[in-house]
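Q: Is it fine to ask for two folds in a single conversation?
A: Yes, each is treated on its own. Send the first.
Q: Here.
A: Result:
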Amino acid sequence: MVPPPHFSTARFSTYRANPDHPSQARALGRLEEIAGQVAGATRRGPLSFLRRKPTVPAVYLDGGFGVGKTHLLTSLAHAVTAELGDGAVVYGTFVEYTNLVGALGFLPTVEALAERRLVCIDEFELDDAGDTTLMSRLLRELADRGVALAATSNTLPDALGEGRFAAEDFLREIQALAARFEVLRVDGDDYRHRDTVTDAEPLPDAEAVAGADGREGATVDAFDDLVAHLATVHPSRYGALLDGISLVALTGVRPVTRQDEALRLVVLVDRLYDRDVPVLLGGSGEHGLFTPEMLAGGYRKKYYRALSRLGALAETGRRLLN
């Protein structure tokens, strides 16, 4: 549970704050301060009850898709690691933490994470009441033990500019922890230019196959076969499916109409993006991949994030063909 390869070189110094959106520079500066605070904090000893309890940083990055929240979060993780060494920070997505609890049990997870100085949670999700309650309890236990916390989540594109980001929902759901979290708003446009990228015409199946032919580490699969196979593998193992894979070519890509299939695809896209694996999409490509009902439903944030990331990976794949 470390920052994904896509952000292995992300640092505060490489974040390019957009001058048109001053909140980006403010968030950057504040996180640099928090990194110093976490790295300079001293763990309380056995007689800590005799001293005033120190303030433990807890920060929430709130903004739309592609404004650099994950870049900032991973930069925070790298900065603290550089000061305190490997093992001081644990990093994962919301789903990875719920998977960890499922694998170890709640109390063993708390004990393992409490040894860290900073816990980073990317893509905090609010669409599953049970998982949200579980994570709220986990964060409370860690904060009580002096662990610094940092989290991100997404605002829907149609909520941008309204002055109401996801922070309101986040703070309501974490209840007892809300007062401890500092909200940093990160405004801006999607640097992956989702609307432009996903308007690109899909590749003919034959071109997608030819693009993978002879390329080391490339795979070619029919979309329906992939969808069927994902149902046989636990989502926590999707990353392992991509070990050694340099390019994914899919033929016969079509809209998915079942929610369970769509959610599995979201997890796969996240793992592809984490590992910078470009894709070649035949069939209808990303056009209409998720139905209008899905994009208006309770999991819409997941689907919009997946479209943004898939579009960027597809554009990378197209450049490989030139």
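Q: Second one now.
A: Result:
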Amino acid sequence: MKNTRLSKLLSGLAAASLAIVPSVAQAQASPAAGGIDLPANINLLRDNDPNLRTATAVVNGQVITRTDVEQRMALITSASDTQFGDEELQRLRTQVLRNLIDETLQVQEAAAQEIVIDPAEVDQTYARVAAQNFGQNVDAMDEYLVSIGSSPSSLKRQIQGELAWQRLLRRNIQPFISVSEEEVNELLERLEASRGTDEYRLGEIFLSATSESEKAAFENAQRIVEQLRQGGSFVGYARQFSEASTAAVGGDLGWIRLAQLPSELATVAREMQVGQLVGPVQIPGGFSILYLIDKRQVLMADPRDALLSLKQISIAFEPGISEAAATAKVETFANMVQTIRGCGDAERAAGEIGATVVSNDQIAVRSLPEQLQSVMLQLQVGQTTPPFGSVEDGVRVLMLCGRDDPQATAGPTFDDLMAQLEDERINKRAQRYLRDLRNDAVIEYN
């Protein structure tokens, strides 16, 4: 319950586009390393023990406390089933501190440009998150955050950072982004030419890296992948750690074709199955972690959007029933199902053995469990699925009584593609903007 609730909370949160800035690993000598001249063998003149540094910093005079770090960490660790070791917690603490530094720089830059984030607006966003996850009960969300070791103020700080960054981008970057009609029309033509080919809805977590920080960035990405495979929320980790602007929407890239991806990612995505996580994948500028949310064909109707008319026929088992008796009851049930002569005969046949029938005329195929989707798409009207279930939950079949097939999609509009191209260019400019803020910052670590 704890992990499910927090995953939903992270999914609904208008969270900040936070970034990992990986630790610089010991680099090999490289004349192409941005003009930095490094010896082949590094001899540190002092021991470097990160455990001696407390998790606090002063960013241009503004303090980030240990409490700030620990409360933000709680949002991440409570969303995962993983038991974190001391070393892993230390790495996570370092990453979260860097994220908080970026968030502080964004809020400070907004204030310097007289962009005011009204506390009432932060409270309204906070209340919307509570409405999505706690049924309008803000107090319940307050209690929940405290119970996992976080706090309402930590979440509100994150919301403030996101609002500040969005407005900075709208003022300083978005007005200067230009996409021509010719570019959009060319993209529309390519889209029509690709009708029937596959397109993918991908989630991405991007970590930037230079030649010097490549090793550390790769290790950071590996740790994130490990946490995701152990139950962490992809949306939550993308919001906290991805350096792409899509962090604000949980890393969701929307529907894209492989030609729109870097070749390294396109090669990987082509082989992925829905629900699969892959990475880290090295691309120019860093590493990406990919999650395939869904897949469909360009400008074609998706069979999973068909609306089904179904009848569910089920039996329940008495508490304590023996295995032999349960097996016999399932056998009787399966034989009865085979005698049903269409949907109009379901109630009569079910009544003979005490089975129950429930009807639903508006079920989308994609809303069914994945194991059933392909089975349902192969059924003809009047046919049933194989029996499924258990003694505890009951055994049932689904009978197909009708299907309304979807119409072919018209595809994205001119305005949709214009917005997509603009977002891509804003993302690139936003990354440079944040790097400039980091370069100009005065940061003291305690």
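Q: Anything structural to flag on that second result?
A: Two points. Confidence is low (pLDDT under 50) at residues 1-8, 10-34. The radius of gyration is 27 Å.
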